[in-house]
C-alpha cells in the first residue's frame, strides 16, 4: 500500500521509499527525514482541497507531504 492511500488516523510501517530515477533527490530526502524500512508512521490529516497535503507523523515529528511524495513510500498497515 502507498502512504498516500493510508486512511486518516491509521498507523503503518514503512517498507521502502521508491526512487523515480537514479539520484532521486526527493526519495533521498524522504529517507533522510526518517522514512526508512521498519519505521512506524501515522496519517494525521489530509488537506481540504484534493486531500493535499498530507500530515504524516513519525515518532513525535510531523511532516506535510504532497500526495505525489507520499505515493513514493510503500507501507504495511499496522493492525496493532
Note the beta-strand portion: 35-45%
Number of DSSP helices?
A: 2
SSE order: EHEEEHE
Q: Structural class, please?
A: alpha+beta
Shape: globular
Q: What percentage of residues falls in helices of 4 or more residues?
A: 10-25%
Oligomer: single chain
Distance between the termini: 17 Å
Strand order in the sheet with the most strands: 4-3-2-1-5
Rg calc: 12 Å
Mean pLDDT across residues:
93
CATH T-level topology: SH3 type barrels
Number of strands: 5
Reading off the top of the CATH hierarchy, the class is best stated as Mainly Beta
Regions with little confidence, pLDDT below 50 for 5+ residues: none
Structure report:
- By secondary structure, the chain is α+β, with helices and mostly antiparallel strands.
- It has one domain (3-77): SH3 type barrels (Roll).
- It contains two helices and five strands; from the N terminus they run βαβββαβ.
- A five-stranded antiparallel beta sheet has the order 4-3-2-1-5.
- Keywords: Iron.
- This is Ferrous iron transport protein A.
- Residues 1-77 form the Ferrous iron transporter FeoA-like domain.
- One of its GO terms (molecular function) is transition metal ion binding.
- InterPro entries: Fe-transptr_FeoA-like, FeoA, FeoA_core_dom, Transcriptional_repressor_C.
Question: What is the structure about, briefly put?
Answer:
The protein has a single domain (3-77), classed as Ferrous iron transport protein A (FeoA) (SH3 type barrels), CATH 2.30.30.
Secondary structure blueprint with pairings:
Elements: E1 11-17, H1 25-33, E2 40-46, E3 54-58, E4 61-65, H2 67-70, E5 73-77
Antiparallel strand pairs: 1-2, 1-5, 2-3, 3-4
Domain Ferrous iron transporter FeoA-like: 1-77
Pfam family, one: FeoA
GO molecular function: transition metal ion binding
